Amino acid sequence: MKKIITCLLSMAIAGNLMAQDVKPVVANLNKVKLEFKLDPEGKPVYAVYFDGKPVITNAALGFELVNDSAFSKHLELSNVEKADFDESWKPVWGEVSTIRNHYQQLTVHLRQKETPKRLINIVFRVFEDGVGFRYEFPKQPGLKYFVVAKELTQFNLTGDHKAFWIPGDYDTNEYQYTTSKLSQVDGWAVSEKATDIAVRVVPDQHAVATPLMLKSDNGLYINIHEAALVNYPAMQLHVNTHNFQLSASLVPDALGNKAYLHAPFNTPWRTIIVSDQAAAILNSKMILNLNEPSVIKNTEWIKPMKFVGVWWEMQTGKSTWSFANSLDTADAAGNLIANGTHGANTENVKRYIDFAAKNGIEGVLVEGWNTGWEDWFGNWKENIFDFTTPYPDFDVKGIAEYAKAKGVKMIMHNETSGSATTYERYLDTAFRYMNKYGYPAVKTGYVGKIIPRGEHHDGQWMVNHYERVAQKAADHQVMIDSHESNRPTGLHRTYPNWLASEAGRGNEYNAFSMGSAPDHETILPFTRLMGGPMDYTPGIFKLKGYAAGASDRQVHTTLAKQLALYVTLYSPLQMAADLPENYEAHLDAFQFIKEVPADWDDTKVIEAEPGDYITIARKAKGSANWFIGSITDENARTAKIPLSFLDKGKKYAVKVYSDAADADWEKNPEAYVIKEYKATSATVLKINIAKGGGAAITIQPLNNLRNVFH
Amino acid sequence: MKKIITCLLSMAIAGNLMAQDVKPVVANLNKVKLEFKLDPEGKPVYAVYFDGKPVITNAALGFELVNDSAFSKHLELSNVEKADFDESWKPVWGEVSTIRNHYQQLTVHLRQKETPKRLINIVFRVFEDGVGFRYEFPKQPGLKYFVVAKELTQFNLTGDHKAFWIPGDYDTNEYQYTTSKLSQVDGWAVSEKATDIAVRVVPDQHAVATPLMLKSDNGLYINIHEAALVNYPAMQLHVNTHNFQLSASLVPDALGNKAYLHAPFNTPWRTIIVSDQAAAILNSKMILNLNEPSVIKNTEWIKPMKFVGVWWEMQTGKSTWSFANSLDTADAAGNLIANGTHGANTENVKRYIDFAAKNGIEGVLVEGWNTGWEDWFGNWKENIFDFTTPYPDFDVKGIAEYAKAKGVKMIMHNETSGSATTYERYLDTAFRYMNKYGYPAVKTGYVGKIIPRGEHHDGQWMVNHYERVAQKAADHQVMIDSHESNRPTGLHRTYPNWLASEAGRGNEYNAFSMGSAPDHETILPFTRLMGGPMDYTPGIFKLKGYAAGASDRQVHTTLAKQLALYVTLYSPLQMAADLPENYEAHLDAFQFIKEVPADWDDTKVIEAEPGDYITIARKAKGSANWFIGSITDENARTAKIPLSFLDKGKKYAVKVYSDAADADWEKNPEAYVIKEYKATSATVLKINIAKGGGAAITIQPLNNLRNVFH
Question: Where is the Glycosyl-hydrolase 97 C-terminal oligomerisation domain (chains A, B) (predicted)?
Fold first, then answer.
């Protein structure tokens, strides 16, 4: 199904747009309308409406270039094109097996009135759930290489909306979300308190990161982000706390420049997803649709998976990444002195491999396997890790053979300590090493200040770096799970081997800091996850008393909610993050993790409200089985789940893992009950969810039980 | 011969130094004396004397750190050590076969009086031709990782000396030298006019580069530079044009920081070479002696050589580096359209190989062999070159086989266009490629602004980059000839595979610009060459009418002077830079280039005056043959060359290639005469040298003629 209709408006109409009182050019689809015009000074502006309600009004567009600060003034409209587009495509993996890409496209061709008469086009795509637009710098005599000083794009809102936001930090997205009115945005106040984040760079007190989730007083849900961030810095939003105008703020390079470009060039898409239903925000595929198709031709080797790892034990202080306590001491032979707490030792790794093999978990991640961890953090230095030298107690060859014999996939870990220069220096060698030892995936990490010094995690140079790593990984048929990288923008459509990113506040904060509030996971799908999957590392069963030296620390959910997260927080890479012994203490609950898949044919958002609750049902890839996750914030509630998505007339077995009656994230988090029912598509489940709680549900056709569950 | 005597001064003496009127601590050797003391504020100062005359007076020492701006105030002397050292060592290649390293060492141990009582040592080495000193940050609790904000080192001169200087540019050393009084130093005036240098960054109007050559009114020759520049930025000198105090000025990084360090750390050596004889400056081995011995254990594969190259024809506009004229046009099949002027085509390369083989020239350099040259320069972009993709008309395998069969060594060319990030990304691959095709050497290039953007050619990050490349080259047994890198500091002792650098204004400026004045080559040995060999590319025979589209352009020397440069400008890599056809037109003169070696057992500086003239005799490695080069500036002169260095009682055949009577660099540069004589050690040659002229001389024992010359 593919249909394009192009209608070229006449130049006469285009010419009319120069007059002050002219009607704007319009594109629309269903309830969404986009208006574009040039203002009396010849500056481009746009507006967005949903169901007749203004969403974005009189918002500027354009650029200042380093060598042309007036680039976007005194423009004239030389042509307008309009086209309708409707097709469907199949992602390599995802929440659904087929994605419809349906929009009306409006392209405005702009030209400077005066010499050098530079050209810029703006392409709008109006979907039924919002608007995406990008700038295109065509090949032209007057503009070849150029440097962006400022992107002028605005998103001017109509009121003091409720916002779910984190500060506009150049180097991290790992803040807790603040829920406040736009007028109350204060990134400095938040950043100052966020002492559990090591590197915090928030130059603008009133800048917020995207995806930014908003809710208007008149019931609109609005999400602002970007799609296809390639060769360009991440966009943050400066909030005018008085008039609620938001302006693009690009993360600069070491010199304060924003982007070094070469025409022809297309910017990332700026995305405005809007609906009067919160669920529609979570269902939106606009960001994926605005990304380019896969550049990887053979994708057979790309497989979603669950994994366990030698990791939580370090996060909680039970063992260490490092082999020795210091680089400064050595034994008589000049070797490091083992500290006896090194987690990535061969015996311990084999224990995780055994556990994975026994429970049908596909992968095992091992951190701290390679030399460098004695002095790796916080000193902004290069050449800490070489990515190919294991510690003496990590038998890389023996472990590879052991895992292979057990049918378990090893996941490589490449922590760069922020020195991207070092990683690039070793990239060829590092990926050859993974191939040699049969690692099909790598978790990358960028903890600390970036080198090249002066660059930021979210600037153009690093955005290009992450893409280079994804490309190099694809060349070596390796899947990527990037941590501390820029937040995703749907680029996993183009690089389906880039399965997931952290790039947000994961479960780990409950291990090494005071953690995240109970509403955290109800906000993430509306914010961080809008751009792509997150390696959140759910599945913690021991929710108190796990942190060495911090007995008061606890995870801010119930155990049942940890199960629900495998459904509500979509990712093709899902960790079972807790220790094998903690799973073995609750094998009945662990059964859900064993069964829940990491790839889906279909997804239904049953109910959702950002900051409050989310219930999602998903149908397993190539299966008739459904899985439901339902979570709440700090308030208890009853989830009502109509099973109307099930096949009519069929009977199903339903298994509900939910909070016990006396469960409570704070006082009694590990109390859960498991119940089994029979159901049909007419059934409506009513499940009591505790404060900070959740429920996880498996549904399978009754005639099909034995074949599917293992 | 190795002798060390250590005498520990008592703490009582050290304590005395705190008083204002205390005698300084002294070290000396022959005519050179060094004094050190703490001033009344506890700041370290030093002075240097030669034969009782003050050279440097009351000059500050020390640092400001980013986190300790008062690091060098309120210091106290905790210990003083003194030792004598005398040994000899043999370089892998060089101007002499044995080098004596003879000095008295004074180490002052300093400590902050107040908490955190940080430690810093200053180590002075007093040689008979000057003083070197460095700072040592010992391992200590109060200082682990630190950032240098400013190095306070001064070199306070006693008067308004005559100086041979180039501006303190962060990115280039390719200026013509200005000869002026210190009071007249104005880097901006020079930089503004130097339009033949593409990237010029001179933030300080009164900064000059090192090596800085000075001559005082009272007859002292003084050279200030540094030795063993490792993991630190290059030092420039800020000139106070009123009181002639010079201060260290370190090239900053993108953020304005100077150096990121980790104790224990030793800075480069600051060097002050001084004599009342100009020749002693050229004879000094202090800078080499202050470098560490070779880190390469097996040096058998490192061989000095002469080479020709597909290069001057591009410099002069006869052919092009690029295969096509534009990346924007393609033929029907999508391939680049050949411009028909591509120099590095297989047939032309084989012509150079034939010429080299026929004339006993060891190597052939080929530039423009790899894709990327259509749009490589001036746009500050990455990923132009991948260092392993030849143009379609360059048969890399066929050429490698052809050269091997002819006994000729191919020299790889890796131009980075300033993008060090790109080069590091491909470094492993690039060197494997050289090994695969049997290239024993590589010419690297860094034309343009550096990436990482904001870094400079001469900053710490790039200094580390050049060393990484040298190390990687050594790992692959490849020799390095680096262009547009930082000027050398004797590091070729430590990395003897790093044969030469450009890092100065080479002969190429006579090809693509209006060139260099006739005194240029009389200044270079006193400045640029003090730190190490230069790939100057001498040997141009066609001195007028060579530049396409610039018929008035000419080289500013005579032909005989081009021959002399092979001796006066020492390098283990010497290019015969002109086209084969221009050599074939003067085969009698070319005979000298065929015979002159690139490695020596001994060197005698016969006469020298910076900016005026230089005459040097050198004895070929493993041979009884001597070679002499004598050059002048724009003034004609008569060189008087006593052959007293020859063995007494032996007879020698002498062949003199000199300017014809009517030769003149400007009007008649290609007029030369070749004469033969017999001589003994009692002979004094008197040779007329034209304006801008020179003479080249071969001397061989009479009983030995046939065996040596070929």
Answer: 599-699
